[in-house]
Structure formats: C-alpha cells, structure tokens
C-alpha cells in the first residue's frame, strides 16, 4: 500500500467549497456508499439475491434523487405522486448498484493501486471525477496545474481517500464492461447484410390480399378449448407482476365559491401595489405562486381559450398597464404588461379525426363517406363540438369538442397547416388527408401578438374548511358503503364508480396516479374489502378491492379470451388464404394481371422504389413484413404467398439494386465499428437485464 500512501499524501483539494455536496454527487453518479461499512440503521428495506439493502442506503439515494429533482425543477410542488416516482427511481438505483457489486464479485474484477494512479494522471481518458472538476472550459483539456494545487491541500485528505475509491469503482465497472463486450462478435455476412439493408431498393409488382379474402370471420369458429390451449402454449407472453383490480369513488378537492371569492379578493388587493412596486421581481417572488414569472413572453397558447380572450382582447393590453385579475385554468392571473409585439402567426381550431390508412384506397373512400355524412349534419345545424364527441377518433380532444387550442404553423403536419392558415375564422374546411387520417376542421381564429409581462399568479386552492367538508362526505359514503353495499350507495348518492382494471404496485391508476396508500390497501387486503378514506393529492378516495392475482401471469379473463379468439380466427383465415392464393397462382400461370382480371375487387400495385431500409413502398405506403420477405425472393418469378401487415400477398420482383457507384467493401469498413459498438451495448444490456430478471429481489419498503 506504499503507492497509495504516496498518492494520499499528494492528493488534497482546495477548490471544493461544498465537499459534502460533491461526495453526494459521487454517490448519486456511481452508486458508491462512501459513508463507511454498510450498517442496518433502521433495518433493511429489501434484498437482492439474499444480500440485504439497508434502509439507510436506500434513504441516502432517495434524498439525492429528491434533491436533484428539486434543483432541476424549482418551484414545482413535490406531490405524493411525484414522490412515489422518485422513491421508485431510488429503489431501482440501489437494486442496480447491488447487482453490479455482485457481478464485480462474481467475476473477481480487481483494480490495482497503480491503475488508479495512472488513471488519475491520464491525459487520454481521465476518470469522470477528474474530467468533471478539472477540465479547462477554454481548452477542453485537464488543467494539470489546478489539479496539482488541489492535491496539495491538507484539508481535503479524507475527501481524496473517498475519491480514489470512486476512481477504483469506475475502473472496475469499465473492466466488467470490457470483459462482457469482448464476447460480442460481428461476422462479415452480418456487415454485408446491414449495408445491403441500408441501401438496397427493389422494384416489382404485388397484389395484397386481406385476411377476409379467405372468407368472413364467422366462417372460422373457435372453440373454448382452443382458446385455453393457445393460452397455455403461449403463457410466457402473459407473465406479469402481482396485480389487483378495484373500483373506487373519488371526491375531488375542488375549491368552493367562497374559496374563489377569497382568492380574488386577495389578488384584487394587489393591483395597485403591483402597479407601483419599486422592485417588481421581488414583489412577484413574494406574492406569486409562480415566483419566477418576471419579464416572461406569453402568447394565446399559454392560456385557456376564454382566458386568452380576456387578456388579448382587453383594452388595457398596452405597456405599463395591469390586466386582470383573470380566472384561468385554476388560477387568478394579474399581468403587468411590458410590451406588445408581433410574433409568429397562430391559429385556434377544432377538428374531427377519422382514422384511415392513406395508402389504402378503400380505407380512404370509407373515411370520405363518413366525412360527407358529418358535413351534412353540420349543414343541418348540428353542433361541431357534439359531432366531435360522437365521431372523432382523436382521444386527446374528442370530449373537448375537438378543440386543439392555439398553435403555430410548425406544430401541425403540412397539410393541416395549409388548410387552416388558408381559411377564415368560423370556416369549416375538409376533409383534409394527412398521415393521421381525414380531418374536418373548424377554424376558430388567428392572432400573431405576443406580450412580455410579469405575472402575479394565485392558485385556487380549497381551504381547510372546504377540505374537511369534502372529507366528511367521503367518510359518510364509506360508512354507508360498508353497511348498504358499495355500488348501491354510490347509486343512491349519485356518485361515479371508477373501475381500475388490473394494476401492479408500480402502475398508474386512472385519476389517482401512483399512490402508495392505495397500493398498500390493495396489496394487503382481502377481496371485497372497502378502504378507509384515503387522502390523495387531488382529493379523497374510497376503494373496494375486487380481485387479486398473485400467479405471476395474466388470468384468462373475458378480454384476453376475445384477444386470443381474434388471433386464432386470423391464424385460420391465414391458413385458408395461403391455400387459396396457391391455387390462384397455379391457375393464373403465375400472372398477377390474370389474377386481377378474374377478381375485379383486387388491385395490382407496381412500384419502382421499394426501400429495404424502412419498408416503404413508393405509391403504397409502409409494410416492413412484406418488404422483408422481398429481400429473399428470386427475380421475375411469382412468389409463394408471403405475409403482410394485414394479410398475405403474391409478389413478382423485377429488380434489386444498390446505388450507382457505391463501394460495398468501403461501406462495410465504415459501418463495422458502429455495428460492433451497437452489439457490445446490446450484449451488456441484455446480460444486465437477464441478471435483474433472474435475481431474487425482495421489496419490503
């Protein structure tokens, strides 16, 4: 250890004012526990392959993850939902750290003192701690003079003892990575195929046959025993963590009218003070729920439709004026205008989306027929919003009347943008075909103004009195549900009952998100149990547990039976379709034209540019499965039936070519290092995922 003693005598540091914070960074970045031997302060929170995870170690990582989140998101409230996500992140980190430690031990990875010293002094690839803290920003090189001064500070001896262990761990992990990556092999055929896949195009013709060309689904009945047999044969596809299903009634924490009046009265009282505040930034910091809203740029897109109208149509929208307070999206907003200028053109619109495949003529025609029906209803006086709720296949806004909000030209696809920005307010245009489908669009308005302002914002929050009142309602419901029945009580009190579907400890539950108290109830209670009133970030919850599944597999429920039935019908249709196409191929003498002539409902697709790289067929669309099959076909010969994304096809290729002038060998040499790197990373990721998947992980948090 003489060498390490020599290094320790030299390695002291002067620049780190916040040494503790930096040590925290080491732990956060590299999963090192530099606080000394592991101790079970407060017990263990779990184990990995029998190795306990001390609560102190987990909490240390959680605190660092939480601190990092707060530093990156100043002003953001850490709700219980966010906190649950941070705790899950810390848990995964500590599990991964333990697994890596076990792998290092398994492969007896060692790093000598000499290797640590050489790494610290390396000019080529210094350790992360050296790069992060001693790189000269002007040159991008390690500032050796600064590093040597840091080494000679006697006040940081303990710090360097810890830092050298961080370097040692980094080198150990790198050795483990290199050992695993050395097992990756790239063969010449692999490189050749990759280059050909990247640059090869095909030309030829094909006829697509949908599954129902073999007959309707009703011609292919499926028995219950077939569904069960398929499930058992493919059971591995349905592995899952333990799940629960439940139903619940949610009592939202909604501010009362009195709460709203109180907030408005408070912000009304700030108008004159805000207008004359000598230090505007300080005033906003103290008075606003968004403390950094000083000299910010706003457009209509930053407000609700009604809020934007009140602000941008206000007669006070001028420099030096106060606009508001305006009620907007759960806030009262008071704006002090600094400037009003011209920005990017914006539009506000609503749409009704009819999903079609743009490359499928029949699909487009069917969509256009529905679009004509909708347009006729509009002409007869129907409400656009009601028709959007009824017909639109855009789940993000159908129930909001199809309202898309305010947007710039760049936010939408070109066809949509062209239709909107060429129209007039109040006009209905379309149907417009984009890659998403057919759109019927109602143009609401245009604006190109933007403002620079400072804002005092007050969030509308329920008072403690309001919160207690809502909680009492939840408690009354809970007591009645226990004696009279959950569904019956909800019906009598005219409350909505929400079904959760299956969920695990770590999945989001509709309306509730990831809630530890909900998970704790669900995974510790018996079927049919009704929870106590559970406090959530946004309200109160009363839940009834419906089912438990600890088998490790999804149960064969009605929904899964229907999915498997559809798969079996498709398999049977596919088998029949292949046989039918084989007969067609034989009877037509191998001619696609003859097949089309005898079956008028079919169409032959001819394309001169079929890209192997992305599966795109010029003039048709994308079908990776079909194009992949083309790669192995013989030219100028009708293929056997090949599977497509929606059925089967008969294909005749007449060309396969690489770009003129492409040197295959040169391109292979260029791609080889990239492919090797990808395979190395893939190998390590797969290895580590397998180690995690097969590890016995106990979570006792």
From TrEMBL:
It comes from the Bacteria. InterPro entries: PPIase_dom_sf, PPIase_PpiC, PrsA_foldase, Trigger_fact/SurA_dom_sf. Keywords: Isomerase, Membrane, Rotamase, Transmembrane, Transmembrane helix. The keyword Membrane applies. The keyword tRNA-binding does not apply. The chain crosses the membrane at residues 12-32. It holds the Pfam family Rotamase_3. Residues 344-445 form the PpiC domain. PANTHER family: PEPTIDYL-PROLYL CIS-TRANS ISOMERASE HP_0175-RELATED, PEPTIDYLPROLYL ISOMERASE. This is PpiC-type peptidyl-prolyl cis-trans isomerase. It comes from Chlorobaculum parvum (strain DSM 263 / NCIMB 8327) (Chlorobium vibrioforme subsp. thiosulfatophilum).
